[in-house]
Amino acid sequence: MKAALIGPAPEHRPLYEARRSTPREQGPDAVVESVLAFAAELRAYGVEQYGTEPVAAGVCLPGIIDEAAGVALFAANLGWRDVPLRQLLSERLNGDPAADAAAPNAADTAYAADTPYAEATPSAEATPERARIPVVLSHDVRTGGLAEGRIGAGKGVDRFLFVPLGTGIAGAIGIDGKVEPGAHGGAGEIGHIVVRADGPLCGCGQRGCMETLCSAAAVGRAWSEACGDPQATAADAAKAVESGDPRAAAVWNSAIDALAAGLVTGLTLLDPRTLIIGGGLAEAGETLFAPLREAVRERATFQRLPTIVPAALGDAAGCLGAGLLAWDQHSAEVSSR
Amino acid sequence: MKAALIGPAPEHRPLYEARRSTPREQGPDAVVESVLAFAAELRAYGVEQYGTEPVAAGVCLPGIIDEAAGVALFAANLGWRDVPLRQLLSERLNGDPAADAAAPNAADTAYAADTPYAEATPSAEATPERARIPVVLSHDVRTGGLAEGRIGAGKGVDRFLFVPLGTGIAGAIGIDGKVEPGAHGGAGEIGHIVVRADGPLCGCGQRGCMETLCSAAAVGRAWSEACGDPQATAADAAKAVESGDPRAAAVWNSAIDALAAGLVTGLTLLDPRTLIIGGGLAEAGETLFAPLREAVRERATFQRLPTIVPAALGDAAGCLGAGLLAWDQHSAEVSSR
Question: PANTHER family per the record (chains A, B) (predicted)?
């Protein structure tokens, strides 16, 4: 778990960042518990350092998220289905017995009154304006895209596509300061565009998804196979490319070819102004970006070419974006008062 | 050219529709001239039938449109590049000498005072509120999508993808009541997604674009080749499929396979709630829709399946949507007064 304290508008400066392990093997309740304990730590730090309570909380996770309902519909990494995470967190952070009573999942609300955060938070009666902390829930790549778009590599850009190349490949579609969720929270899944109809079987069930060909994991696997070292990674492949290894160049060029094919499909449909590439593979820097720009230019015909830039916020982009969403929610509530 | 009079909110009922030929071989000036004459006809009809002046005008055309600037950057069918159509029409419809003086294309403003429309329009001095008609310019498939989304097959749907299958294939991405233009007016070009890397050469310069495999024109060509009749069309292919011709079934199934591949890519990226299929090919009805729904269902794995429906407004969708955009502009100007 990554967490951050985010300062107020307009800069929304990240004030503090921290990391903790996720007790995913202990189930959703334990994860919620550890998120709350983590939130309490950050709150205590914020109060101590800045003398002010947080005004809102944002949480993001990988998987399929119903943002409007605040429910994690499916999170493979966590083994979750239909977890009403926003409600669970909101009840705990705000210590609201009425919300508890309305909970559809009675068993999940048993730990309502005894967390460090709830204890430390002023009661609703004492300071009603501050105690009611809104909680927003979103998808980690969408919040990562939001952060890159507002305070990162896409700052000031009206339309961008953020594509992190990591274990998998996801995407976030930035339009006019927001990230498009789609009708069911599934928009942006560029990693599962089929770029080679006869390509490798993907975990999603399709064949030849971009993700199977040019994620950091896919490049690591391909290089591992080519060089015979089962521990070899995408970073090792990049180093071998830089040192002039022709086998590495073949692995690398094949990945870039698939990546360019998928990205050109994305820009044919979306016409972004900026393409922000992040994730582990982007750490290869110009070893990736120089041939990638060239490959996109070669494939595109009528499409307007976007600027292709590396992500700026690293792997904390997701939690920074969750903080920005929380600020948005706070601003919306203040302006509707 | 298709034109329509559109009634006020909330129904925005189409009141009148008409068609005229486009004198494209006479150049942009002649086309602008004929658009103005056509507008004058519609205005006269509206005044006579409803006793009221139009409040705004919307124009759409195929090609690459800069909506913000009101410029037709490129329209292959018309042979246009960088035509400031919104300004040309606005000057003429509003008879504004100041705007004329500011025109970058002095030659294009020579016909400023002698059109039927300008004569019939009250002068700016007489009725300033009504004489100043805002003009909006957009892309015909995007306005078609807007119309399908507001008063057609996507009415009330938050997110849809509108894909007309005609001579070519285009697309319009509907999000929350608007159609997404992209950064340079190029969003939605789903017809140029590559679905077969070794497919036929497309007019755009790529190979295997969806448009080369499953537009109405592509199906007509394939059936023509299969049946030996150079005049055969997609509609003939559909009839032959319905009568059980196995050669037609092969042509048809191949097109549906390519169409499903492109559409699944579109829904992987965009997650629409409804997929609206229009254009000539959609006139085959269930001969198209039944196997298409099945093919999309077979290809999709994790993607949420949208409802797949035929377009409702036919080939007047574009001009109806231009009228809706004009109403939007009018409403924005009224509310900012």
Answer: BIFUNCTIONAL UDP-N-ACETYLGLUCOSAMINE 2-EPIMERASE_N-ACETYLMANNOSAMINE KINASE, ROK (REPRESSOR, ORF, KINASE) FAMILY
